[in-house]
UniProtKB/TrEMBL annotation:
GO cellular component: microtubule
Name of this chain's protein: Kinesin-like protein
Species: Bos taurus (Bovine)
Pfam families hit by this protein: FHA, KIF1B, Kinesin
InterPro entries the UniProt entry points to: FHA_dom, Kinesin-like_KIF1-typ, Kinesin_motor_CS, Kinesin_motor_dom, Kinesin_motor_dom_sf, P-loop_NTPase, SMAD_FHA_dom_sf
Family label: Belongs to the TRAFAC class myosin-kinesin ATPase superfamily. Kinesin family.
Length: 828
């Protein structure tokens, strides 16, 4: 662990026109003293890695550059600041570290001046870029260097690309990727060959950047600006690539709204700016606490757009520096004190920095051999090392063809270019990272077609299914890495991706929503777990921490409850069987052997099941009871039995004889799922359990259910040290009492329906009555007689409707009560 975050305090004076007094003094290059203007005897001292004085003691040279006025001056110009900070950033980038420079402070304190500069006084950013290309010119010509430049602004929690003249409403979206972390979708990253290109891009971005006209400074930014330089070094002779990212961040002003003169709608903007800076401080505080050995449960990166994008800079593989720019003016005492405290808190933070190489742990020192014999090139895996050619894993010597795709380990991809005679005018740009991963997914049998992404009706892709496919492709390398770590740490786990509900449907035959899961199998105990995508990603982060300890030679043994590779034993959903109930709508029996299909649509077991209509006492109905139209059963009592006879050829039990199974199902509006008794250690378990169901008044809704729905029986796998099933077993007796209790919901529904009809009728009657009230006798006596006649008729209609409504409600309620009494008598 290395201390790599340093608080740098730069103090340019920007308040001479305010008639203010200086309250800052520096007696060394590391110590800053601030004096309370209301109590001159009260001072506070802060110590940092470096402190710069730029308030006085300077003059301009012939080129317009600020330099020290004399040898005794403590003035520090842009050249000194770059020498101390900028060169360290460049050195870290050349070594392969990600580097970040943050400029923090009140608007008007000189943040942008330190970062960008003005006129001949170039700031850190242009100096870093210029020095980078000068160093590239002087380096080994056999090496390849790639530099890309991006520039964005965060204003009121919205992101804008400063290299694009098109401003997207609402800003660019910040998205999250398992590998990249948070990133800005659609942000331009421009390749640059020299400093002149970067200089033009910076000028373009500076013109577009949002500025706020406050009382402090007409050109002072109220937005965060983030410049990112991606620097890649390729060493062909060693087969090595170093990649680093230089993040240069000019933060928005941290002033209080009162002193900035902001008012009206600007208050909302100011609060958002200050909120993002507060969130940044909270993140730094949490990291500082962690560095001091305190227990930190959560680092709040997600609380603002700024901290999301700076996550890798603050808490990841990065060397980070903070410039805290302060004003020496007494009127800015509160802001200056706040900035110094902020920088002091930042100075406690410690981070682990790791050089980013392209040859990670996933490739072994001896991984595979490539042989050219007689113009034929072959690749041979070494031992059990993982090698994939064109999406298919290989274990023996394999001949390579021009443009073959090769993956070594979990995620290092290569494109084989054949001999000159084999080459043509192919477009090599299509062989990107996504191409390799899509090919792997297709080889594993997962594609958009198989997932059903394209609707056969309109030919358009289903966005939800495409999202599942993208999740699958993104998780593939992560699962491969997790398996590699499991193998090296000797955890004995094998993880594989599955698509939940790939071939599953609901009781009406409609496809269920698909999602990516990870099936985890212990190779020795054969225990199985199913992890959700979110759970797997969380576990993988913990696995990486444990694996890093292993690489560092530290003790990688942890308590079982803290081991990311361990989980308590749980039940596993093996598959579902669909039994269509249409025969019951015609009073016909059904006896069949139905397949349990797993999530891949493959047979997991076979269920022997009987479904038959019966009498109230359980006697089977004969052919004479068959009806040709389900309407004949409307309003009548219906009884039927479901008998689960046997489960045949259960693969779950064949794989491990110590396992068990249990089945469960629900029917119609039954409030609970019914489960069979758990059965252990029998490949073809005999279930032989029967339930009788009764509906005392078959409704049209129930008959429709029988004609259009299937009974879904779920097969659950029990395993390991589970002494009992987690599912409550329903004693599947033939006792009619249990059946009657299940009809309570139906009775309540019928009663509610009767009340609804009554209410609708009364509502119609109420409308007629209101209409009657609005009739007024006309002034013409000759018209009085027809009016009285019409009024009498309306009153009669109203009375008839009211009476019929009340009569219908009375009879409906009486019938429902009678049916409930009959059920209770049968139960007794």
């Amino acid at each position: 662990s290395a201390r790599c975050n340093q608080g740098r305090v730069s103090v340019p004076c920007r308040e001479k026109n305010s008639g203010s007094k200086c309250v800052i003094s520096m007696h060394s290059r590391t110590t800053t003293i601030i004096q309370d203007p209301k109590n001159p005897g009260h001072t506070k001292t802060f110590t940092f890695d470096l402190a710069y004085w730029s308030h006085s003691g300077f003059q301009k040279d012939k080129d317009g550059v600020f330099i020290s006025a004399d040898r005794g001056s403590k003035f520090a110009g842009q050249k000194e600041v770059f020498h101390d900070l900028g060169r360290g950033i460049l050195d870290s980038a050349w070594q392969g570290y990600n580097t970040t420079l943050l400029a923090y402070g009140q608007t008007g304190s000189g943040k942008s001046y330190s970062m960008i500069g003005f006129g001949a006084n170039k700031g850190i950013i242009p100096n870093v870029c210029e020095e980078l290309f000068q160093a590239i010119e002087n380096r080994d010509k056999n090496q390849e260097y790639q530099v890309t430049f991006s520039m964005l602004e965060i204003y009121n929690e919205q992101v804008r690309d400063l290299l694009s003249r098109i401003k997207k409403p609402g800003g660019l979206k910040v998205r999250e990727d398992q590998q990249l972390g948070f990133y800005v979708d659609g942000l331009q990253s421009v390749p640059c060959e020299n400093y002149a290109q970067i200089e033009r891009l910076m000028e373009q971005g500076a013109k577009i950047r949002t500025t706020a006209s406050t009382n402090m400074n007409a050109s002072s930014s109220r937005s965060h600006m983030v410049i990112t330089i991606q620097f890649k070094q390729v060493f062909p002779d060693r087969g090595l690539t170093k990649q680093s990212s230089i993040n240069l961040v000019d933060l928005a002003g941290s002033e209080r709204q009162k002193s900035s003169g902001s008012e009206g709608d600007r208050l909302r903007e100011g609060s958002r700016v200050n909120l993002s800076l507060t969130n940044l401080g909270n993140v730094i505080s949490a990291l500082a606490d962690a560095a001091m050995g305190k227990k930190v449960l959560h680092v709040p990166y997600r609380d603002s757009v700024l901290t999301k994008l700076l996550q890798s800079a603050l808490g990841g593989n990065s060397r980070t520096t903070l410039i805290a720019a302060i004003s020496p003016a007494d009127i800015c005492y509160e802001e200056t004190l706040s900035t110094l405290r902020y920088a002091e808190r930042y100075d406690y933070e410690y981070l682990l920095s790791i050089v980013t190489h392209s040859c990670p742990f996933r490739i072994s020192e001896k991984h595979a051999s490539f042989t050219n014999s007689g113009g034929k090139v072959t690749v041979t895996p070494y031992g059990k090392c993982k090698v994939i050619v064109n999406g298919v894993p290989i274990t023996t010597k394999t001949k390579l063809q021009h443009l073959d795709r090769i993956i070594l380990g979990s995620n290092s991809a290569y494109l084989y270019i054949g001999f000159p005679s084999e080459r043509g005018s192919e477009d090599l740009s299509r062989f990107d990272y996504d191409f390799f991963q899509l090919e792997r997914a297709a080889a594993e049998g997962v594609s958009t077609d198989k997932l059903g992404a394209v609707n056969s009706g309109d030919g358009k892709a289903d966005p939800s299914v495409l999202a599942v496919f993208q999740d699958y492709v993104k998780l593939m390398p992560l699962v491969a890495e997790a398996n590699q770590m499991s193998e090296e740490l000797k955890k004995g786990l094998n993880m594989e991706l599955k698509v939940k509900n790939l071939a599953s449907s609901d009781s009406r035959g409609c496809d269920l929503q698909k999602e990516v899961t990870v099936k985890v199998t212990h190779q020795r105990t054969h225990q199985v777990w199913i992890w959700s995508k979110a759970k797997f990603i969380n576990r993988k982060f913990l696995m990486e921490e444990l694996y890093q300890r292993f690489l560092d030679g530290e003790d990688s043994q942890v308590a079982q409850e803290d081991d990311p590779f361990w989980d308590p034993v749980e039940v596993v959903h093996l598959g579902s069987a669909h039994i269509w109930l249409q025969s019951l709508a015609y009073c016909m029996k059904f006896e069949e052997q139905v397949e349990f299909l797993n999530c891949d649509g493959l047979e997991e077991a076979v269920l022997h099941i009987h479904i038959k209509p019966c009498s109230p006492t359980g006697q089977a109905r004969g052919e004479e009871d068959v009806v040709t139209d389900p309407v004949d059963l409307l309003g009548k009592r219906m009884d039927f039995q479901i008998r689960l006879v046997q489960c045949l050829g259960t693969k779950w039990l064949k794989e491990d004889a110590e396992r068990g199974v249990q089945m469960g199902y629900r029917i119609y509006d039954l409030p609970n799922t019914l489960y069979t008794k758990p059965v252990w250690k029998i490949v073809n378990p005999q279930i032989d359990e029967t339930v009788q169901f009764t509906t005392l008044n078959a409704s049209q809704e129930f008959l429709n259910y029988l004609q259009t729905n299937a009974l879904i029986v779920d097969l659950w796998g029990l395993q390991g040290t589970m002494l009992t099933s987690p599912f409550a077993w329903w004693p599947l007796a033939r006792d009619i009492n249990q059946i009657c209790t299940t009809q309570q919901v139906s009775y309540d529904r019928e009663f509610a329906r009767a009340l609804k009809v009554f209410y609708q009728s009364i509502n119609v009657a109420r409308g007629q009555f209101l209409k009657l009230r609005h009739y007024k006798p006309p002034e013409d006596d000759q018209m009085l007689r027809p009016f009285v006649h019409q009024q009498s008729q309306m009153l009669k209609d109203f009375g008839d409707l009211l009476e019929s409504s009340l009569w219908k409600l009375k009879n409906d309620v009486a019938l429902i009560v009678k049916q409930k009494k009959e059920c209770l008598l049968h139960a007794e």
